[in-house]
Amino acid sequence: MRGLHADTGYLLYRLGLRSGQLFNAFLQESGLRLRHYAVLRFLATSDGALQRALSTRLGYDPSAIVGLVDDLEKLGFAERRPSPDDRRSRIVVLTEDGRAFLRDTDDAGLRATNELFQPLEPAERETLHALLLRIAEDGLG
Fold first, then answer.
1. What's the whole-number average pLDDT of the chain?
2. CA angle at residue 86 from 83 to 90, to 5 degrees?
């Protein structure tokens, strides 16, 4: 019978958990968690997004997105605005304070990643990232 660590999917799951723990520890001072950070990072690459689009792209339950955006609005990192396409819909956009927060946390993200992948050589890290990116682009859209 195969051992648990022989299952690549399980290893990815465990490494994902560890990555989240490391990142949440680095974000702890801000009061935010990795899920908030993911919303901010996504918004930083767009001109705004409908909440349902955030839910789809990030793979979060729609009700979780509402709470995350509420938290980010309270901090002034994101805001809801009327959609130019449909005044009944609201888009979520990143504020300047949100952009500043992301700039300030870039180092924390790199530290979390470096700690997780410390056993790998730089070239191995690049290869792993490229492979994971290929899987993510194919499987996560």
1. 88
2. 35
